[in-house]
Every structure is written in C-alpha cells, then in structure tokens.
Amino acid sequence: LESDADQPITIDSNTATYDDATSTSIYTGNVISIQGTIRVNSDKLVVYFLDGEADKLVFTGNKAKFKQTPSVGAEDVTGEALTGEYYPKKNLLVLIKEATVWQGNGTYSSDYIEYNSKSSVVKAGDNSTDAKRVHVLLKPKQKTPNDTGLKTDSKKNDDTSGKTSDQNLQ
Amino acid sequence: CGYHLRGAYDLPKGMKNVYMEGGSSTLREQFDSALKSSSGQLVDSRDKADVVLRIFQDEIEHRSLSLSARGRSNEIELAGHLEFQLVNAKHETLIAREPVDFRRAYFNDQQDVIAKGNEETVILKEMYQQVVRTIISRARSVLETQGK
Amino acid sequence: NEANWNCQQDKNTKEWVCVGSAGSAAKSMPNTQGKPDTVEQGNLAKPAPNVPIPVAPPKNAEPRAVEALKNDQLTQPKLDDKPVDSVLKEEAAENPDAQRANPIAIRPLNPPDVSEAPPPVLPASQKPNSVTTKEVAVLDEGGNPRAHGWNCDTKGKDGNWNCQLVGADPRGEARVVETEDRGFHLLDPAFNNKQEHIFNTLRDRFKHNPWGNCTIQLGSKKYYISDKKLRAKANVDMNSNAAEIYDNEIGNYQGRVEMQRADQRASSNSANYDSVSEALDLHGNVFYSEDDVSLFTETATLKLASDEARMRDTLFISPETPIRGKASAVYRDSKTLSRYKDAAYTSCEPGNQDWVVHAGDLKLNKETNTGSAKNAWIEFKGLPIFYSPYLTFPMDSRRKSGFLAPSFGNTQKAGFHFSAPFYWNIAPDYDAVIRPRYYSTRGGLLAGDFRYLAKKSSGRISAEYMPDDAISQKPRYLATIKNNAQFTPNIRSNLDLNIVSDKEYYSQLGNALSFPVFSNIRSFADASYVDKGISLTGIVENYQTIDPILGGRLTPYRRLPQLNLNLDHSFKSLMTDVGIQNEYVYFQHDDSELPDAFRFNVKPYVSFPLKTASVYLTPKFSVQYTQYVLNKEHSEFKDSNISRTLPIASVDGGLFLEKDVDLFGNSMLHTLEPRLFYLYIPKVNQDNIPIFDTSLYDFNYDSLFRENRYSGTDRIQDANQITAALTTRLIDSKTGLEKLKLNLGQIFYFQNREVTGKIVRAGTDFLFNPVQTSSTSPLVAELSSQINKHVGVQLGTQWDPHSNEFVRGNAAIHFENNPGELINLGFTYRKNTLLRDSLDLALADNTFTKEERDRFKIYRDSFLTIRSNDIITSDISMRWPIYDNWFGVARWQYSWLFNQSQDAFVGLEKETCCWRFRIIGRRYVNNLLATVGNANNLANPQYNSQTGIFFQIEFKGLTGTGLDLGNFFAKTIYGYRKKGY
C-alpha cells in the first residue's frame, strides 16, 4: 500500500548487533522484517542508518523472500533473490542475483530487478549488456466467467512461503 | 555335362496362399492359373494368406513403332510397367517395391480391328504369364535364402 | 588467424564465393555444440516443444499468405501409392488425346477401392527431414539479424572463437557473402542478397523444411497447420535485456527481445506488450513465425486477441505451397483475410529467383481459399513475360473453381488457336472443366469435361461442339462418355462411347501433339462376372472409322452383343482339368454385300497336367463346335445355316535343367528349358464360312505354342505339327533376377496347312491367303538381357529356311544412366510376303473377272502396295542432360524403306523445384499420301508431313500454360516416366 512507507519497520531475528562506528545494525538467523504490508524473510539483514533514520536495508539469504499487498484487495506481489536492497525513503526494493518477482499473472526473473513499492512498477535487466537478461512469463488470464480476482488471491496467500509452481519452469 | 534336374515349377514353401492387392484383371488371372498349376492358390482375404503381393502402377503403354505407307501405325509396341512388393503375414517386407518392365511389339495395320483386338488380348495374357514367372522366381530366391 | 577461406569469383554469376577449407574450418570453428551450455538467464529462445503447454482454444492466427496450386492431368487420376485396378487406366490410355491444357491442381477423386486397401505407407524418400538444431537468437547484440549459418567473433570468454549457429548447419556449404557488379540485368532481382539470407533464417524457423523434398506432393501430409487452440491457454514467455512493466499490464522490453506463445514466436530489437488488450508492438528487425507462416519485417503491430496485424516491409514464407515473397505492407483484417501491398512472391527455394510474380496488391482469403492479385506481372529469369490486370488463383491444393492456364498455338489446319479453360468444382465428388476455344481460320468451339465419382463407379463425359466451321461450313462435334463401375469384387462393368462428326476432326481440330495414327475409334459397353472357375462377360461394340480411305466393306463388323461363358474345374486327385468355353455373337454390318450372322461356339476341353518339380507333360483334348446362322441368302455364301465341328489334340511337355556357373565373378544359375508342343487338328473345309473377326496372328516365339495360327474363330487351321523350342536363362542366384534369356524355337510341319480364308486385303478387294507348304516354320530367336542396372538389350530375328532369307529382325538397346537420362536405339526389319503371294495366287485363278485381275496386276507391280506391310525403320530417342539441369530431348523415327522420317522432334526440357519448361520442334506425318487404292502415284511415296513448335511453361504453385508435353514424351520415348506431380 502507499501507506506502507510511513509504517514503522519491525525486525525480529535470532541475533542482532549494532555497530555505532559504522552506524549499522546486523541481524542474522531467520530474520523477519515487516513494514506495513511489506514482509521480508532472509538469513541476514544489514541496516544502514543515516542521521538516525534507516536509510538502506540489505537482505541476503539463500533466496531472501519478500511480499507486499500493492493496494487494498489487490493480489499480493511476492519476490525472492540472493540479495535485496530496500530504500524505505525511495520506496525502492532492488533484488540482485537470481531475482524473481510474481505479480498477478506475471513472473519476472533476471539478475537485477527494481520494484517500486509505491507505484508497483517493475524494472528489470540492463539494456547495455546481455549479461542480465530478463525472463518474463505471463500466464493467460482465466477467461472462465465465474473467475474473480479474490479466488486467485486466496490461492496466492497460503503458499507464499512454499515455491509456487511457476518457479520450476525456469 | 553338369546340368541336373531341379524344381522350378514348384512354388516355394511359404508361398502357397497368396493374397493379391491391385494389379490388372489379366495379371490376376495369370497369377491364379500359375498358382493353381503348382498347387497354390489366390486367397480372397489377407489373413488367410502366407504372403501378400502388392501391385502398383500396372500400366500398359501403346507406342507406335512404325508407320505404314498410308501414314498409319502398323507396328504397335505394348510396353508394360508394374511395381510389386512382397510382404509376409506379419507385414514384414520380403521384397521392397521393385519394378518389372515387359514389352512386345506386334504387327497391326489397323485394318482387321477386331481380329487384332483378339490378338492383343492373347499377347497380353502371354506377357503377363512371363511377369508372373519373374515374380515367382524372385520370391523363390528371397524365401529360400531367408529359409536358410 | 589460421582459419583460411579461399574466395573466388564464380564465372557466370560473377559472385564471390568463399569456402572455408574443410580441415582448417573445423579447427578454427570450435564446435560450441559440445560445450556445456551455461544457462544464462533466458539468452536462448526456449524451443516451444519442451515448455509444458496446457491445451486451449486458439485465440488468433497470423497473416497466412498461403497459395498452392499444382498441375495434374485431369483425365488420368494418378494414384501412385494405392494399388489400383489398371482397367481404369488402360482404357484411359487408349482414347484419342483431346486438347488438354494444364488444368489446375485436381485432387484425384479416390475411386471406390472395394478390395481392402493396404495402410497408406509414406515411402521412405518422403519422410520429412525434421531439422533439429539448438536455436541461437536470430538477432546479434547489435540487434541486426544474424546471417544464416555459422557466425563467429572473437569475444569468446576464453579468448578463442565464439561461434554461434543460426538455423540449419550448412555443413561447410559455401554461401555468397556479398556481390558488387551484377552485369547487365533488365530488372533488379526481386530479393537482394540480404533478403535471401533472411529467407534462409525464416525457412529454418519451421520444424520441417518446406522445400525439403522439393516435390509438391498432392495430398501430402499437412505439417503446417497451426493449432490455434493452444494459444489462448499458453503462457506468454518474454526474454529481453531489459524490461519495464507498469501495473502488471503494459510491458516495455528492450534489447534482443524474444517472445513466445504456443507456436507464435517473435524476436525483435524492442517490443511492448499490453497484456490486457493483448496488443504487441515489435520494432526493429522483427522475426515473427507460427506453424504456418514465417515473417520478417521492420515494424509490426499485432492484436493477438482479434488476429489483426499491420506490418511494414515484410518478407514472408508460407510453407504449405511453399511460397516466399515480400510486401511493402501487410494488413491482416481478420483470421482469414489478409492484404499485401506491392507484393512480389515465388515458389522457388531461397536463393533461387527464377520466376517472381509482382502484384500491385494481393488479397488472400482463407474463407474462399482464393487469392486475387491486381495488375500482376510475371518475371521469368529477369524478363517480364506476362501481365494481367486481374489474376485469381486457388490458395491450396484443394480443388477450387477458377481459371486454368490459358493455352495457345498455331497449326496449319486450323490457324492460331487460343483456349481459356475454367475449372468448376461443383461438389466434392464431381467437377467440370469448361474449355472455350477459338480458331482463327475456323471459328469458336466450346468444349467441356464433366467428371464424377459415385460410391461404386466413376466416369467422365466430354464433349466438343463447333456450331459452324468457317472452312467446311458445317457443324463439327466430338463426344465421349466413359464409366467404370465395380459393383462387387466379382462384378464389374465398363462403358466407353465415342463419336466424332467427321473423319478429319482429329487431324484438323485435334490436339496437334498427338496426331491420330490409328484408323478407328472404338465404342463399347461390357459387363463381366468373374469368380472361381467361372467367367461370364458380355460386350456390345462398334467402331467408327476415321481413316478417310477406309469405307464400306473395309470397316469392321459390329458385335451386338458378344457373350462369353467360360467354366473350368480341376480335380487335384485325378490330376485332370476340365472346362468349357461358350461364345454367342451377333455380327452386324451396314454394307449389304457383307452378311450379318449369329455365331454360336462351344469348346469343351480336358487336360491332364502331369507334373513333378522339374518335368511337366500336359496332354489336352478339346472339341470345337461352331454354328452360324446368316441373316439371308448370300451371293457368296449360299447356305445361311453353317456348322463346323473339329477335334483338337495337343501335348505340351518340357523339363527344367540347371547348373551353377561362375561368370565374371558372381555366381549365376544357367538353366536349360527344352520344350516340345505337338498339335493335331484334322482338316475341315471352311470356305463356306464368312470372315467376321479372323486374321493371321503375327508370327513370333509365343505363337509357336498357340493352337491356331488364326486369331478369332472363323478359321481353325488344320495342323499336324510339332514345335521344338529351348529357353535358356542366366539368373543371378543371390537375387533371382534374370540377367539374360534366350528363346529359340521352330515348328516342324508334317503336312501342308490348307485351311485358308479371304483375309488378305488388296485395295478394296479381299483375297485368299495361300496354302502353306513349307516343311518348317521360320526359326525364331529372341534374346533379352538386362546386362546391368543401366543397359537393357532386346534382339530378335526370324530366318525362313523355305525362302532362305531373314523375314524378321529387331534390335533395341535401352540405356539409362541416372534416372531420367535415357538413350534408346531401335531397329525393326519386317518382310511380309503374304500380300505378294496372295496376289500371285489370285492372278493365277481364272475365276476372277479380267477387270479384277487387271486391278490385281497393278497392285502386284506397285512397289508401294507390295511393300506396304514391310517395315525397315530405325527409331532413336533420348533424354540427356546438357548443362545446368537442362535436358535435351529428341526422337528420330526414320523409314529406310520409304527413305523418309516418319516422326522427328528435338527439344529442351528443364525441371526445377519451382518451374518446368519444355519446348520442342516436331516434324511429323499428319495425313495420307498416295492412297493405296489409287494406282497412279504409287511409285514414289511422299509422306505429307508437317512441322510444329510446341512449348509448355509451368510455375509450380501458381499456374502454367501450354500443352502437356510430359504425356507426349511418355508415349514416344521408352523409359520416360512422368514424375508423380
């Protein structure tokens, strides 16, 4: 939601250390960070503070996962990557290395994906090189009349933690 | 002088009941009588047959070999071409599709039309007799080598 | 680097051709195939098959410029792969070859095949060679299309070559890199080199190479039907360097974009896709392909949901025909209608632009399956040869109504003639061709063929009608009705009725190619029931004589009807065969001098075939009873009720000796098959029996073993003779194939053959053939040998000890190098003394009037009459490659007796995948010379011959024009076989 950016960020993990010199705090072990409807699971989290405010959060994990509800009643957007960088002020989440984002019936995977949590715009790849190729998979919209947006949503929520069937298509 | 009697008029073992597909009625007639004369027979359904003989493109081409003084053809060549394939009951190909060409010329100055028509019928019968003989001899060499 | 390319300029096309020498090329182009292909994220377009695609109804279809048309002979349904009863074909071959322009592809009406047809087996040669290569993106980093084949650069990670294969591996085949000067060319080539490369890439995007086996097989399996149902349910799979997706609906993709949905595959520099409205815009070197079309364009906007599309500067391949071409703009209006602006297309494979059709605008309508082009002109080998403001053509091989290829020509008899046939596909099982023709010196003529196929029968009705012939001032017509029916496996009937308005119809209005060398047109209707041991046939038959000099008594009898009932049965245990042949005929003739008569003939026989594996002896006894009832008293034949009874006895025996022998290194089987045939028939005077259907057999090896030297029933020879014959063969023991066969035979007569009949014609008179008194028949020797796969020889001769001279001789050599490369040499010698002996007999017979004998004297002294049945002709025919797939075709039939050519033509023929061209110049005898009957100019025979030029050009997949020379060659050159299509 747009209001996510104003929500407080709560983080819980096995261990947490704070380094005043570099004004960074490091959390390791099953780290879960939540801000509004955004929720991120990762193995390690490093938060960089800039004059007292969380400026950049860097998640790493063997596939760190993230989830957000873009707007009320809309389908959740989920994603995963080896490392992710979240800039709360810029509402920008950058997923790097084996990154994949699921949004509605689309699946976007590349080595570099930018997801704007405010405008829910996804930018992927880099046009100057073909090292970071983007692979987008759009499933056909269900044409059956009794289809409602909610039905697919509910399916999406319960298995966010498990890998949805599309991923093994890669 | 080294020549010995050997069976050529008998049918090879695996060729007593033959089912024939395609081919002109004259060829069919000659095959029937050739089989009958050496204790074989043409059967009318595939499953009763030891071998299935498929005939393709059984055609006779009439060609004028020479013109008489009146500018009308007086020597007609009957050039026959057919292709045959021999398959056993289990659909294995014994002889892949191969051609048989046969031809004979005969004098026909187109005046005694009915008489020459009778003659052509007789000639066709005799030509097809030789074709049947060739096919059976081919089949014999294949079936016998296969038998060994 | 060490890879060396040697390039040289090709002398005739002036193009530089670079060939990597095999050795170094392999070294310098490390085969990347082997390297484990590191799966970078999506750089390889995923080949469609291995993506699991749920089945769904099709949503849209791309523009389909499908156009197929094949020329096949309307009259002769060619059913190569299905064994078919050749009665259907046999009578089709005999009837006069009426004017046949090349009708549009006619799917052969499948005749009712009552006998159980074998499963249709696709012969090995036509198995589709599916091209399986790992596909490399067709656009290189810079976004321009990669050239077809190997593309190498040195940007490889470990410093050596980084080579990528695009499309099928050319396996070292040289490819034209670039050419500068093109020498003189009236028109620029329709497709420049860059476009030809793109066509290669487009071709390789199909699973099966449309030009795979080059032949357009009628009814071949359809590889190119795209299954649209899959698309609606299939995922859209996009790969690109970069992507931006707004609100999960509008996607903008940059950098080597590859899109795939079910069978739709596209690649371009950039694309944007609106998943809601399913609109796809592609820009920059766009390759778009489906199962049944493949396109390259600069910009394309496609509405995937409603099958609409607009494309600029498009190159397209439609594989069904196959057809390839370009258009400045393509508009797809619906699933079935597409319009092309400034289109140019051909059916030749990429790299070959022998013919190209240019059209202002082209409309292809899949609904009516017709294509229509406005102001279209055809360019052949760089020369514009045909223009038409409006041109319609069927779009695939299914039968479509439409104009067939126009044909035109010029003959001395009828001046310039032009015909524009129209094919009308009335219903699935019957169709018609309407063939209006115009002759400059004679006027208009309407011709038509109607063809039908019912459940148990098929047939054809043809008619030609010229209301008023300007030269002869009377109507001319020709009509043919044919029908073949197979009611049950045993009952069959045929009908073949022909009538023509006058005797000169064929020589004046007929197809100039197949001038009639026959004298009579046969019309008959027959029905037959054939089963085990019984055969009943009935026939009604009439001949119309079209030989101007044969009339009155010289025309044949009508058989109204003739019934034959033959029964036979063999008792295996008693080793006896019995049978009876019954015949009932009513002969009718218009000439009052000739009697009409019923003839009833019964011939029971019994034979005892004694057989072991290698010896056979077959005595046979039969009695022939024949009864004639003439319609009235007759000057020549007093009693109107004649009967004749004759016993016939024959013994046929032979044995089979063989010996293994080694010839030129391969083991052969040499056989000796001596045979004796004794025949005894007592003499009965048959002079009181008129001649209806009898004349002398032509004497050859087979006639040595016939029971009668006359064909027909009106004369049964008296005989007491024995035939001694020997057949020896060389058989390859491995394959059983006969390498050589020699037949020798002679008849030894123990008495004269005194039964004769008025069967010899001299002018309008009928003479008795003389009694034969010689003690032996001519010695017959016939040799035939297939020396090897290429050379076949046939020799034959007959030496008559009685007159101590050769009476027959023929030699024929058939040489076939590669298939279709033929040379035939033939010589025929025949000396027939029958007429001379009959005339001598008649001159010595004073029962003839003086006036008749004077006439016989003239015939006897006329060189022409006496030698009219003799033959000394040589016949050479060939089809031999000359240069670059051009074949020379020639035939020369020369009569050494009359020192003149009887038929001679020479011509050129070229056959490629996409066009066929034939042209011949022919000099042929087209009508009569000094008639036999008119005595004065018998001295120097002068054939009245005529020369003509005939040509045929055919663009496979579009249309063709000119007469069908293929059939003509098959009739004149032994061994020439028309290709399947």
Write the layout of secondary structure elements.
The complex is a heterotrimer of chains A (170), B (148) and C (981).
Chain A: E1 9-12, E2 15-19, E3 24-35, E4 38-50, E5 53-68, E6 77-87, E7 92-103, E8 106-116, E9 121-125, E10 134-138, H1 149-158
Antiparallel strand pairs in A: 1-3, 2-3, 3-4, 4-5, 5-6, 6-7, 7-8, 8-9, 8-10
Chain B: E1 4-5, E2 17-21, H1 25-37, E3 41-43, E4 51-67, E5 73-88, E6 93-107, H2 113-147
Parallel strand pairs in B: 2-3, 2-4
Antiparallel strand pairs in B: 4-5, 5-6
Helix pairs in contact in B: 1-2
Chain C: E1 5-9, E2 16-20, H1 22-28, H2 87-94, E3 149-153, E4 162-166, E5 175-176, H3 193-204, H4 229-233, E6 236-240, E7 242-246, E8 250-261, E9 264-274, E10 279-290, E11 293-303, E12 308-318, E13 323-332, E14 337-346, E15 355-365, E16 370-380, E17 383-394, E18 402-403, E19 407-411, E20 415-419, E21 422-427, E22 430-439, E23 443-453, E24 457-466, E25 476-486, E26 491-500, H5 505-509, E27 520-531, E28 534-545, E29 558-571, E30 576-588, E31 597-607, E32 610-611, E33 615-630, E34 641-655, E35 657-663, E36 666-681, E37 695-696, E38 710-711, E39 719-732, E40 738-749, E41 758-762, E42 765-768, E43 779-786, E44 791-800, E45 805-816, E46 822-830, H6 834-843, H7 850-861, H8 863-866, E47 871-883, E48 886-895, E49 900-911, E50 915-927, E51 944-955, E52 959-962, H9 965-972
Antiparallel strand pairs in C: 1-2, 2-5, 3-4, 6-8, 7-8, 8-9, 9-10, 10-11, 11-12, 12-13, 13-14, 14-15, 15-16, 16-17, 18-21, 19-20, 20-22, 21-22, 22-23, 23-24, 24-25, 25-26, 26-27, 27-28, 28-29, 29-30, 30-31, 31-33, 32-33, 33-34, 34-36, 35-36, 36-39, 37-38, 39-40, 40-43, 41-42, 43-44, 44-45, 45-46, ...
